[in-house]
Design brief:
Blueprint lengths: L5 H5 L14 E6 L3 E3 L16 E4 L6 E5 H10 L14 E6 L1 E4 L1 H15 L6 E6 L6 E4 L4 E3 L11 E10 L2 E21 L14 E7 L17 E3 L14 E3 L8 E8 L2 E9 L8 E5 L6 E8 L2 E4 L1
Parallel strand pairs: 1-5, 15-19
Antiparallel strand pairs: 2-3, 4-5, 6-8, 7-11, 9-10, 10-11, 11-12, 13-14, 15-16, 16-17, 17-18, 18-19
Length: 310
């Protein structure tokens, strides 16, 4: 239990500000949230009771002064003579809070780690930079953890605001937000030459380049991507990333083709000639027409000669 006797009553307003130095006054800076017996031991020795808490530490940026009259009863309760701890009736002890400074570069490193933990599905190397540099932060000199209370709703973007908290012993001691620029570096496929619209994609026409994927307007293909059966839906200039929205499967049937239409229903199996009305790749649903009845139907492209009638 904390010392609750004359100490709390004796902490007046004047004791909470810096006292005028005297020959008997000592000063300590504590890191923890409590002042312990070891902190008020001015003899430089050690004690088995050093871990006993005496009182709460001052708030960050504040100080208070302990006197012999406040400390002596506490020491007596624990079987300690004040003289053995270096205390005399003239002794006073000014207590401040030990601090640490978190600079903008160190803060940015912690933000990168926290974001990577928040978005484990992120593929690539995350890099952050400030849009506006964050000022240095003063914290108690204790281990801290940076957390993100509200992850960005739309995920990580090229530019965004990120709220964050700094916690010590599971308590928030600082809360703010940072204006950030982000990039995610990932190896992607970039064209070596101009790829014309409708041209089949060949892995040999692409080079693997590490590039920021957040700046792209679409999902890029990576070095592990299988380009088999794909074509370019647009003209792709040289040195451009290959995006999924600009590719499609190579059609195996085209408008006007006559192919075999197949109808399956239980044990019933019927075939007929049908005319293709839409271009399509395997798996695509296309319109077809019976040349005799002129009736339009829909079917799934099986291959370049067969349509499964729906």
């Amino acid at each position: 239990m904390y010392h609750q006797l004359a100490f709390l009553l004796a902490l007046t307003t004047s004791a909470l500000v810096a006292a005028t130095p005297s020959t008997a006054q000592r000063t300590i800076a504590v890191a923890a949230q409590q002042v312990y017996l070891a902190d008020i031991d001015l003899s430089g020795g050690s004690s088995d009771l050093a871990g006993i808490p005496f009182c709460e530490s001052p708030a960050l940026g504040q100080a208070f002064v302990l006197t012999f009259q406040q400390v002596s009863p506490f020491l007596g309760q624990n079987g300690i003579q004040p003289e053995t701890f270096g205390w005399t009736p003239q002794t006073t002890l000014r207590v401040t809070r030990k601090t640490q400074t978190i600079g903008s570069i160190e803060l940015l490193e912690h933000l990168e780690i926290a974001l990577a933990d928040t978005f484990p599905q992120l593929e690539g190397e995350l890099k952050l930079a400030y849009i506006r540099s964050h000022p240095s932060i003063q914290l108690p000199a204790q281990p801290f953890e940076l957390t993100i209370p509200r992850p960005p709703v739309n995920g990580i973007r090229s530019r965004f605001l990120l709220p964050f908290e700094l916690n010590i012993e599971d308590q928030c001691v600082f809360r703010s937000q940072a204006a950030l620029k982000a990039s995610v570096l990932r190896p992607i496929l970039v064209s070596d030459r101009r790829i014309n619209r409708g041209e089949a994609l060949d892995p040999g026409d692409f080079t693997v380049v590490e590039q920021d994927v957040l700046s792209l307007k679409g999902t890029p293909y990576g070095p592990e991507s299988d380009l088999t059966g794909l074509e370019s839906k647009t003209t792709l200039p040289a040195k451009r990333p290959l995006l999924q929205r600009n590719t499609g499967r190579i059609p195996v049937v085209d408008r006007g083709d006559l192919v075999q239409g197949v109808v399956r229903s239980g044990a019933i199996y019927i075939t007929m000639k049908v005319e293709i009305l839409d271009q399509g790749a395997p798996g695509d649903v296309v319109r077809v027409r019976n040349p005799k009845s002129k009736k339009q139907l829909k079917g799934i492209v099986q291959d370049d000669s067969t349509i499964q009638i729906l």
